[in-house]
Amino acid sequence: HLCDRRQRQMCIRDRILSPKYESYQIAGEYISVTEDGKNMLYDINGNYIDQKNYSSIVEVENSSYFIAIDGQDGTYSIISKDTNIKNNYKNIAYLFNNLFAFTNQDGKSGIIDATKGEIVEARYELILKVDGVNAIEARDTNGVATIYSSDMKEVCTMSGAIVENVNKEFAVVYNQTERIYLDKNGNAVENTQVYLSLIHISEPTRL
Length: 207
Prior knowledge:
Low-confidence stretches: 1-17, 199-207
Mean pLDDT: 79
Shape: elongated
Strand order of the largest sheet: 1-2-3-4-5-6-7
Number of strands: 19
Largest sheet: 7 strands, antiparallel
Distance between the termini: 42 Å
Strand content: over 45%
């Protein structure tokens, strides 16, 4: 998030940052600032973290991570207090928790745990967060979808799969012959649980 006026004044008062910068972002113990179109990183004590000129530094929502783009070669990296993950990535996108999807220079995608590094090698064509739940959809060149739960267990592999959100607590993965429901953490559940949830949602309020 961009620092509000109070945060900015605190940074200046405590001599962490100079008032000359155009914008301020805070993620965990890092502060990203912009001056003359250049992006730079400081720690909370006002020390440079990296002298590299980034073309973009974006705070990952509700986390202590930044996704940074190198100003010279356009590669992506993940930066935090304890992490600087970079491996000539063509793209990085946040999924949830500590998990990120990455694309290498060959256009193949895998998964990074920011606390561990690459945990799924770059073998997929597309990796997305399943809408509404903490699960991951990974598709290969043949359109086969592999679903991972929030703790990175492989839930199912399905050809020609359609992945849809059912409500805020469930999602469904299905094709012409199979149907698997996922709870909010991406684990497979019985369809009766989903049915009961939908009945509860649709019940009228009794006065």
